[in-house]
Design goal:
Length: 303
């Protein structure tokens, strides 16, 4: 999932960059490059308002004024167009606008973004993540999930069993559904995993689409959480997604989560997918999870 940044709105939130500084845009982009380096390499699209002088400069020196860099695409609104309009136009031109979250504190833009099918991430919350280099150089962008780690010995029972998850949220102030969906799109994988767990327990049908989007997340832990959350929802509409992840995802923890959720909500139509995984997946834990899922489905059918 990609983040779309309302550039000048975000600059106005940051305490150490001012909109009247001549290099405000470049300073923001430097901060975003640093953020992207330690947050897992998520692609960013930054929209800025334009101005007559900026438009003339870009027309005269297109190469030197291109502020884009690997993983960060910079776009300026056309003359006479606001960045808000440019963002909404961009979203309406996407086949899957739900794959995007827009970072802004602008309430008017937030309503338009949601109407276009995307999500909104509070600019204030995102700004808090842009503090300069806080991670040690040795920290990896995404921790490697070792399938032999005892923490994953029983992925379902230890990670997202419904009653345990409900207990974690009990006593905590409950945010509304839209807030939890937005958290699913944030840059922090731990927060995204927590959002997936909440949506699986409390989101209902409205959680199906954002959890579907989360299956493309860069972080395998978030993908696994989304798959198990789909199992918690128990909606057969998720079966194609679960089968696809079981067959195609490159992370064994994710495939194991897919098999477990298939066992919870699957029917005879997906037995072939589980049989294939039980016989050919190169990870023993996935093969075992697929066999157990088949047993669950057959037990429900009295076979």
């Amino acid at each position: 999932m990609s983040l779309i940044i309302d550039g000048h709105n975000l600059i106005g939130i940051l305490p150490d960059i001012q909109l009247d500084q001549p290099d405000d845009e470049r300073r923001l982009l430097e901060r975003l490059r640093a953020y992207r380096a330690w947050s897992g390499g998520r692609s960013l699209i930054v929209f800025f308002d334009s101005s007559p002088s900026r438009a003339l400069e870009r027309a005269a020196y297109p190469q030197t004024t291109d502020l884009s860099s690997p993983g960060i695409q910079v776009r300026f609104a056309d003359p006479g167009q606001t960045a808000d309009d440019a963002i909404v136009e961009y979203l309406r031109g996407r086949a899957q606008p739900g794959q995007y979250a827009v970072v802004t504190n602008d309430q008017g833009l937030s309503w338009r973004v949601r109407d276009a099918g995307a999500s909104v991430l509070s600019g204030s919350e995102f700004a808090a993540r842009l503090r300069p280099a806080q991670r040690p150089a040795s920290a990896s962008a995404e921790p490697a999930h070792d399938p032999h780690d005892p923490a994953f010995a029983d992925l379902y029972a230890g990670f997202i069993a419904s009653e345990k998850v409900r207990a974690r949220f009990r006593g905590e102030k409950q945010a509304d559904l839209a807030t939890w969906i937005e958290r699913l799109y944030e840059g922090d994988p731990q927060l995204a995993e927590r959002a997936a767990r909440w949506l699986g327990n409390f989101g209902g049908k409205a959680a199906l689409e954002p959890l579907h989007d989360a299956l493309t997340h860069d972080d395998s832990g978030v993908r696994a959480a989304a798959l198990l959350a789909l199992g918690d929802l128990g909606d057969p509409a998720a079966l194609p997604d679960l089968c696809d992840c079981l067959a195609r995802d490159g992370n064994s923890m994710v495939r194991e989560a897919a098999a477990q959720s298939l066992g919870r909500i699957g029917d005879r139509t997906i037995e072939a997918a589980l049989t294939a995984a039980a016989g050919s997946d190169h990870k023993g834990k996935v093969r075992k999870a697929a066999r157990e899922a088949l047993e669950q489905i057959r037990a429900r059918k009295g076979r």
